[in-house]
Backbone:
């Protein structure tokens, strides 16, 4: 059912999911938001996750981001089994190894861009000293070196998302997770953000991004389609394009 | 090993970072923070003011007592609380001059005693100058040994004065009447009689419960001379025991002596009061403790109200900042970091309240000190400052704990989804 994208080397696996499940209990009903996900993410991959609304994309991202615990299955991050860790250890992992970008930016309105980017460093093991220099560096990386003192309400949507990306990058995470990062942006601004992702990918950053839009997914190198809590297709961009055009695959068709 | 080294460093960083976050949060909501801390401000200010007033009063009274010495016993009339004699008037139970005859023989623990008479307020004249309302007291020679008031010039009242028209005046009265520094032998008019000044005696240090501040002059005359002013007069007595050890015996002997003189039945209550100054201090201390307890209760309630205010505002703040908490957790804040952040915020709010309260308390203390001569020594002892800060901190921890735990327990995903 799911095809593995060809890989070069198996030593550089950052994420390995096996039989990953996440159930929600609502009243007497049990919702299988994730129902046996098998996935490997290697270093410097750029993956787009697509699928219908409710197919479990956000749930998957939350589990990948250690914000949520799977109900069953295993999750290895950089070779460590994450499912066995305590809350405090998960917090350290979120801090040190994961950068999360949200659809709605989630910047703190009372702080300027620099303070927002500094925030993860406050909780980092040795982030306290030199944090503003590091935050400034991250802001420069996303092209906002001149917006350091601006507050979120003084920034455009695209700039806000850049600040959020700088915040995700400031601790040099192993992986950048983005749940519909362009969902709240117009197409021109989205392009800018995606060009930034491209740039980061070229610099060696591993990226997993959720999107509804085919245009957005085209920036990624590998496209995963989800349905009913499972991965139904896992192809390179070119394979995915070919398959879509042959009309063979309809399961992960993006809604329009 | 590396982990071990990191632990204390992380802790310091956690505290430092919590203080930093808390202060910026409080600063961002200045008005709200100030309103929140009013309860704490009132609590701490009242603790400070009450403690300062009591400390000052105590210092004043103790310094007063020092001039008497701690063997002193005071004898006054008293209306009994019960029994048939409770309906008598004060005049009926007054001490009479002859009641003390033979006292020293019957009270072996008493070294000396003096009767003191009240000759009332009199007008004093010297030449053209006059002073209204000088308080005239009659004393016996032993008085000088019991109440250690220095004789500035001349001599004190002695046995040879008997009922002669001699008097002691205070330097202030001498100056007011425009007399020479050396006024011994001068004659002044007290009421309608001429008195010869035999000495100048130092002014009594103030222990006036009535309105302080205004000028009051005391004139001292021999006890028997009081009869020149009136036939009947108020009398009380000061006695001194032979040593502090026999003070209680002295009190008991005096009581026994007076009861016998008054023919009181064994089951009748005293119609007089014999009290050592030591026990008077004890009484004061008991009153001070009572006042402290009552004030403590009031303060406790206001701190409780203050604490609930803090808790309320912390809960509001947490529900307003649910998204922020979710975000902080998402980027790696541990439960302990969130808990400390909100706890420190509550404690700092309380400390700010404590600091403002201390300022208000200091102001109140100054006001109290100026309100009455008796309270002039009012000051804030260091331990009261420490105590009130300890209180404020405890309130912060107690009432901040519940909201802080609530914040720390939030699930990051749900918190982020919170609108
Ligand atoms: N906290 C929750 N409690 C119960 N059910 C949940 C919860 N979160 C998600 N679900 C359910 O799990 C399923 C997957 O949800 P998820 O948010 O992962 O979908 P998605 O693919 O991200 O959708 P969208 O494209 O609309 O964002 C949905 O059916 C949703 O109703
Ligand atoms: Mg989603």
Residues:
């Amino acid at each position: 059912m799911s095809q593995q994208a060809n890989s070069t080397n198996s030593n550089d696996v950052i994420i390995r999911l096996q039989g990953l499940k996440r159930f929600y209990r609502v009243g007497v009903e049990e919702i299988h938001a994730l129902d046996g996900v098998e996935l490997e993410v290697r270093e410097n991959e750029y993956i787009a996750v697509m699928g219908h609304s409710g197919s479990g994309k956000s749930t998957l991202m939350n589990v990948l981001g250690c914000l949520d615990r799977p109900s069953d299955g295993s999750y290895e991050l950089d070779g460590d089994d994450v499912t066995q860790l305590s809350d405090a250890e998960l917090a350290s992992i979120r801090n040190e190894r994961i950068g999360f970008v949200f659809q709605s930016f989630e910047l703190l309105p009372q702080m300027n861009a620099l303070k927002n980017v500094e925030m993860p460093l406050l909780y980092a093991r040795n982030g306290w000293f030199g944090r503003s220099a590091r935050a400034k560096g991250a802001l420069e990386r996303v092209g906002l070196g001149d917006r350091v003192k601006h507050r979120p309400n003084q920034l455009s949507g695209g700039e806000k998302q850049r600040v959020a990306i700088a915040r995700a990058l400031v601790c040099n995470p192993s992986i950048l997770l983005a749940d519909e990062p362009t969902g709240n942006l117009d197409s021109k601004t989205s392009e800018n953000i995606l060009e930034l992702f491209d740039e980061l990918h070229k610099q060696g950053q591993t990226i997993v991004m959720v999107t509804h839009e085919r245009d957005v997914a085209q920036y990624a190198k590998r496209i995963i389609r989800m349905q009913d809590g499972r991965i139904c297709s896992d192809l390179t961009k070119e394979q995915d394009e070919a398959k879509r055009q042959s009309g063979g695959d309809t399961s992960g068709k993006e809604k329009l | 090993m590396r982990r071990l080294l990191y632990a204390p460093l992380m802790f310091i960083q956690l505290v430092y970072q919590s203080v930093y976050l808390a202060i910026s949060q409080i600063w961002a909501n200045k008005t709200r923070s100030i309103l929140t801390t009013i309860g704490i401000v009132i609590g701490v200010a009242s603790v400070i003011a009450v403690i300062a007033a009591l400390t000052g009063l105590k210092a004043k009274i103790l310094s007063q007592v020092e001039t008497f010495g701690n063997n002193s016993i005071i004898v006054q009339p008293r209306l009994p609380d019960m029994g048939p004699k409770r309906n008598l008037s004060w005049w009926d139970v007054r001490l009479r001059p002859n009641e003390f005859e033979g006292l020293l023989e019957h009270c072996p623990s008493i070294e000396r005693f003096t009767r003191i008479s009240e000759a009332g307020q009199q007008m004093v004249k010297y030449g053209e100058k006059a002073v209204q309302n000088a308080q005239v007291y009659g004393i016996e020679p032993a008085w000088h040994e019991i109440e250690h008031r220095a004789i500035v010039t001349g001599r004190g009242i002695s046995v040879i004065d008997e009922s002669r028209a001699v008097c002691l005046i205070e330097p202030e009265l001498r100056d007011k009447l425009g007399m020479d520094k050396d006024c011994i032998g001068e004659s002044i008019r007290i009421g309608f009689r001429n008195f010869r000044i035999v000495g100048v005696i130092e002014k009594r240090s103030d222990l006036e419960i009535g309105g302080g501040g205004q000028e009051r002059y005391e004139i001292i005359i021999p006890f028997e001379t009081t009869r020149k002013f009136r036939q009947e007069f108020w009398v009380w007595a000061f006695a001194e025991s032979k040593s502090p050890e026999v003070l209680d015996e002295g009190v008991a002997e005096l009581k026994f002596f007076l009861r016998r003189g008054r023919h009181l039945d064994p089951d009748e209550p005293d119609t007089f009061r014999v009290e050592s100054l030591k026990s008077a201090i004890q009484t004061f201390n008991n009153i001070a403790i009572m006042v402290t307890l009552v004030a403590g209760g009031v303060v406790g309630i206001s701190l409780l109200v203050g604490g609930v205010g803090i808790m309320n505002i912390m809960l509001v703040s947490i529900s307003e900042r649910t998204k922020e908490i979710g975000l902080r957790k998402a980027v790696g804040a541990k439960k302990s970091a969130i808990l400390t952040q909100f706890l420190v915020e509550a404690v700092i709010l309380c400390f700010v309240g404590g600091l403002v309260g201390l300022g208000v308390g200091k102001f109140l203390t100054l006001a109290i000190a100026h309100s009455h001569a008796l309270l002039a020594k009012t000051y804030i002892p260091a331990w009261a400052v420490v105590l009130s800060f300890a209180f404020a901190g405890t309130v912060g921890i107690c009432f901040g704990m519940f909201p802080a735990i609530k914040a720390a327990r939030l699930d990051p995903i749900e918190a982020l989804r919170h609108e």
Summary: Residues 71-277 of chain B form one domain.
